[in-house]
Amino acid sequence: MRVxxxxxxxAHLPDEVDRLGLxxxxxxxxxxxRELGQRAAELLGDAAIGVFDGARMHVPVDVAEAGVAEAxxxxxxxxxxxxxxxxxxxxxxxxxxTGLPSVCVPTTYSGSEMxxxxxxxxxxxxxxxxDPVVLPRSVVYDPELTVGLAAHTSAASGVNALAHAxxxxxAPDVSPVIALLAEEAARSLAxxxxxxxxxxxDVTGRALALRGAWLAxxxxxxxxxxxxxxxxxxxxxxxxxxxxxxxTVVLPxxxxxxxxAAPRAAAALRRALGADDPARALYELNRxxxxxxxxxxxxxxxxxxxxxADAVLARPYINPRQADRDAVLGLLQNAWAGTVPNAAxxxxxxxxxxxxxxx
Length: 359
Ligand code: NAD
Prior knowledge:
By secondary structure, this protein is an alpha/beta fold. The chain folds into two domains: 2-146, Rossmann fold (3-Layer(aba) Sandwich), CATH 3.40.50; 151-337, Dehydroquinate synthase-like - alpha domain (Dehydroquinate synthase-like, alpha domain, Up-down Bundle), CATH 1.20.1090. It has 14 helices and eight strands. 53% of the residues are buried. Bound molecules: nicotinamide-adenine-dinucleotide (NAD). Nicotinamide-adenine-dinucleotide (NAD) is lined by residues 30, 32-33, 57-58, 83-87, 89, 107-108, 110-112, 115, 117, 119, 145-146, 148-149, 153, 157, 220, 243-244.
């Protein structure tokens, strides 16, 4: 798709809508970002026929239905999604039902705008699929729109993007070009995120992080994700955990386990992160960004880990290293306790000591 990138690029949104021949777009946003949705609508002038501010995390089916109904009621010929993965997810749900094209203006690091993957949640169960019709026609990245994203949310969203890059590097369908994008995504994000957390209003750091998120999203869209995404999907669905924080906690542990069996990915990450032990570097990055480093901190009870391991193993998934139940459980126990990641995925003795930490 077309991509515009740079400070102040939001001003070009009307041109992007016009290029697609759209005359009646519905602007989508979350309730908290109504003002931004309104700003986009004002920029679009007569080409915007309404603002729908009902976007919610993980696209609940009722939200998708309300969005589709509003687009039909207003006889919209397209959507403009301005916001994070939740808002872009709503544009995708509307496109899937109606075929309406979208222009996306991402304001977080989710990377969803670069993928043909849609997601819908019903009764706590998240369904996902791929459909080219949901891929945005044009994406406008404007780092200035991200300066208001809180430091913690930025860091968690950014490490979530890093997870896309890590798993792309050892994906069964990674190509040489996607491997380059993934390595560069990891490099950009790992160097930008500490700067973003130190100075959230600095557009230079924001631009580098957004560039990393763009690259990571492109990798996510082009490859099949492995154990890490499977684990996070299961944990999120089973225990209703925060999406990005779950990724940040789990990533170093899966990286330690999988990189043993993926030497090229390990070498790429050593270069990108400037560290001999990429899993350890990811663990340290979390600490530097003051992100949660254990599932216990997210409110998970140790007793829940066994059910999570069973759910992971219940459905087949792709992974560079075979993970039996002991390995998955060991990995989860380490992630729960927040210990230093280890490739054997054996729970470290420290688990017993740390398990007394309050939840
Ligand atoms: P989000 O879109 O829910 O945004 C989090 C919160 O931050 C919201 O309240 C939002 O209004 C607010 N916000 C967004 N941008 C802001 C800004 N610049 N300043 C201040 N506040 C801002 O969260 P997210 O992490 O962007 O997206 C997560 C969702 O995206 C999940 O549902 C995930 O499954 C999905 N996702 C999908 C794909 C895909 O390819 N389909 C890829 C990644 C993530």
